[in-house]
Write a structure and sequence with these properties.
Layout (H helix, E strand, L loop, with lengths): L1 H6 L21 H4 L9 H14 L3 H5 L22 H19 L6 H4 L5 H29 L7 H17 L6 H7 L2
Helix pairs in contact: 5-7, 7-8
InterPro entries: Copia-like_N
Pfam family, one: Retrotran_gag_3
Organism: Juglans regia (English walnut)
Length: 187
C-alpha cells in the first residue's frame, strides 16, 4: 500500500491559468449569477459578474486588456490566400460566449438596450454608461433612505441590518459612507 503511494510522485500543482489555451469557457448564468440586472441593481450585478469573470480568468475580454487578435494569418503556403487565425477564432468564440452570458444575465427590460452589441466589451461599456448616471441618482436616494430610517417595530438587529445594507450598496457604487456621514445621515 505504501509502495503505490510512493510511486505516485508529488501531488499535482494547482495552475490557475487554463492549461489548454484553446478551450472555451461557457458561463451558466442561471446557476452562477444569483441576480439578473434590472434598472435598480447595477452595482450588485456588476460586482457578481466581475467576480465571475475574474474567477474564470476572462475579465480581459470585457475590459479591453485582452484585445481581439488579427483576423487572418499571413497566407497559406499552398494557396496564397489568407486563412483565419486560430487565436482570432478562439477569441471570437469565447467573446460570443461571454456576450451570451451578459445577454442572459439581464432582465427583459434591459436586454433591448444592449441587443445590438457585437462584443462583450461593447455590451459591458453600454451598460456601464447607462447605469453610471443612474448610480448618481441612486446615491442620493440611498442617502435619503438613511435619513428616513426609523426603528419602528423592528428589532435593533433588523434596524442595524437595514443601515448596513444601505451602506453596503453605497460602497458598491464607489461611495462608501464616512463616519461623519453615519453621524449626519443615520437617525
Amino acid at each position: 500500500m505504501t509502495s503505490s503511494m510512493s510511486n505516485s510522485g508529488p501531488p499535482p500543482i494547482f495552475n490557475p491559468k487554463n492549461t489548454n489555451p484553446l478551450s472555451l469557457i461557457a458561463i451558466n448564468t442561471t446557476s452562477q449569477l444569483p441576480i439578473k440586472l434590472t434598472a435598480t441593481n447595477f452595482p450588485s450585478w456588476r460586482a457578481h459578474f466581475t467576480s465571475l469573470l475574474i474567477g474564470h480568468d476572462l475579465r480581459g475580454f470585457v475590459d479591453g486588456s485582452l484585445p481581439c487578435p488579427p483576423r487572418a494569418t499571413d497566407s497559406s503556403s499552398s494557396t496564397n490566400t489568407p486563412s483565419m487565425s486560430p487565436a482570432y477564432l478562439h477569441w471570437y468564440h469565447q467573446d460570443k460566449l461571454l456576450l451570451s452570458a451578459i445577454f442572459s444575465s439581464v432582465s427583459e427590460n434591459v436586454m433591448p438596450l444592449i441587443a445590438i452589441a457585437d462584443t462583450s466589451r461593447e455590451a459591458r461599456d453600454t451598460l456601464a454608461r447607462l447605469f453610471t448616471n443612474r448610480s448618481r441618482t441612486r446615491v442620493m436616494q440611498l442617502k435619503e433612505t438613511l435619513t428616513l430610517l426609523h426603528g419602528g417595530s423592528r428589532s435593533v438587529s433588523e434596524f442595524l441590518q437595514s443601515i448596513k445594507a444601505t451602506a453596503d450598496e453605497l460602497a458598491l457604487i464607489n461611495t462608501p459612507l464616512t463616519n461623519d456621514d453615519f453621524t449626519l445621515l443615520c437617525p
